[in-house]
Amino acid sequence: MTATAQYRGDYAILGDAHDTIPSMFARQVAANAQLGHAQFATISPSTGFVSLNDGTVPGQISGGVLAESEIAPVTAVATGGLATVRLSQQWFVRRAASTLSNDGFSESDVGVPFWIANENTPGKLSHTSSANRSLGGLVFGFDKGSGTPNLWCGMVPWLIARATILANSFGLPAFRVTDANAAATLSETLLTSPQKHGVVTGIRYVGAAVTASDSTYATFTVAKRDGAGGAAVTLGTLVTKTTSGSGCGDITAFIPMAFTLTATAADLQILETDIITITEAKASTGVQVVGQIELTIKVG
Predict the structure, then answer these.
(1) Residue 79: pLDDT above 80?
(2) Which of 64, 172, 213, 231 has the smallest CB count inside 10 Å?
(3) Which DSSP letter does residue 93 get?
(4) pTM of the full predicted structure?
């Protein structure tokens, strides 16, 4: 098949023709929805219509903020879609972050996803005890003038934020631990080969309950090897001693227990060529452990 060059095709640039990413775009409004200037709007993945998000509606697509200078019209029709609004996905400031504990931002939060705490407020948490949120976009530190976060929200930053979340918490295949008996041990064996460049952010055990003991306990050691004959370098350990015995204490069934990561930050860095291993040792008669070990890395 031969392609034919077309002299003058039908073509129109979205936006103002100067931005690679359109700064403004129009969306139809959901039934009985009304938006106010510069408030967070989300798009329903089932209808494609837009409405304000009060921070309790998860799984929506970020639409940015209302670009109109006044309150938008409302469609009082059950099907919606009769009113149209313009949304902006430009960077903006003067939206103070949530004041809930661990829900605000700092100057070091650059390229960090934010969630819609309510129609006027960004937050760092994906959910609270009372609300499950929708992803809004990205934060890029603080604006010196207003003291508020530099925000970028809309469909494009929403897509990037989703990818960022995956890259910041990339789960590797879990290793299954199934002790045949309390005395069973595990010589150093392969956990996984990440073949990713990044840093280990967490290791945890999830499985059956384990009773802590300072005399009969298990010690798990997760380490990395360079794949070229180098020695094992410890990434993290889990010791089922009591807390007074410098261990993790009792492990409740199916409640994750975090490993203690090495205090040497450089040792947590992972290369594409690294091999991750795991070892299980027992003290005295030991303790039976049945569950899995999960390792998470931040890619970058």
Answers:
(1) no
(2) 231
(3) -
(4) 0.90
